[in-house]
């Protein structure tokens, strides 16, 4: 079997009210890592001031305790961060998260061995899926 060092990765912008994340944000991420669902490769926080200015915050600038180790810190470049934070409203902030999908690592390896590869992918956010299903339930 072909063993990839990393599985597929995804970039997320996770928004929240206020100018910095609460401790529950990092705990939620830690819980996913501990469960073996994802591997955090890079994590950056951004906030938009009430005047509309965007500030990029390194992880170490946002928390006082130990900073989690990141496999590929710096993977989210400034261009990525700016694109993901484009819709951030004044007075809010977001975590820009680059994660490896651990469940998909073996899937990608098996597809590669079989001579295939994922060539396109579309995602639908969970709130939209659940709202649609709730509206269309019998």
Q: Layout of helices and strands, plus pairs?
A:
Elements: E1 9-17, H1 23-34, E2 38-48, E3 54-58, H2 59-62, H3 78-84, E4 92-101, H4 102-113, H5 126-135
InterPro entries: DUF6325
Organism: Microbacterium kyungheense
Protein name: DUF1269 domain-containing protein
Overall geometry comes to globular
- Alpha-beta classification: alpha+beta
Number of helices: 5
Strand content: 25-35%
Biggest sheet, spatial arrangement of strands:
1-4-2-3
Mean pLDDT: 83
Pfam families: DUF6325
Organism: Microbacterium kyungheense
Protein name: DUF1269 domain-containing protein
Keywords:
4 strands, globular, DUF6325, DUF1269 domain-containing protein
Question: Mind explaining what this structure looks like?
Answer:
Pfam families: DUF6325 (PF19850). InterPro entries: DUF6325. This is DUF1269 domain-containing protein. With 138 residues, the protein is an alpha+beta fold. It has one domain. The chain is built from five helices and four strands; from the N terminus they run E-H-E-E-H-H-E-H-H. Strands 1-4-2-3 form a four-stranded antiparallel β-sheet. The longest helix has 12 residues, at 23-34. The mean pLDDT is 83.
Please summarize what this structure is.
By secondary structure, the protein is of the alpha+beta class. The chain has helices at 23-34, 59-62, 78-84, 102-113, 126-135, and strands at 9-17, 38-48, 54-58, 92-101. Strands 1-4-2-3 form a 4-stranded antiparallel β-sheet.
